Design the sequence.
């Protein structure tokens, strides 16, 4: 199950909560928040890729498919 591999350090979840608070504030500094949101989006994409690789290794023996 992906839950055991997803964001094990909790860093992405913490960043997401911080950003939710930032955009929920009465005054939002969008010029600083938008780059942080974009950066978090990239980190989440990378985490999804890493989780997929970890699941393959664990559940399918880790034999990299040789698709290079």
Sequence:
């Amino acid at each position: 199950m992906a839950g055991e591999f997803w964001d094990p350090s909790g860093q992405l979840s913490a960043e997401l909560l911080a950003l939710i608070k930032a955009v929920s504030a009465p005054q939002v500094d969008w010029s600083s928040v938008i780059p942080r949101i974009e950066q978090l989006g990239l980190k989440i994409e990378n985490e999804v890729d890493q989780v997929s690789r970890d699941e393959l290794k664990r559940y399918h023996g880790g034999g990299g498919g040789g698709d290079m």
About this structure: The mean pLDDT is 84. The longest helix spans residues 30-60. Residues 29-61 form one domain.
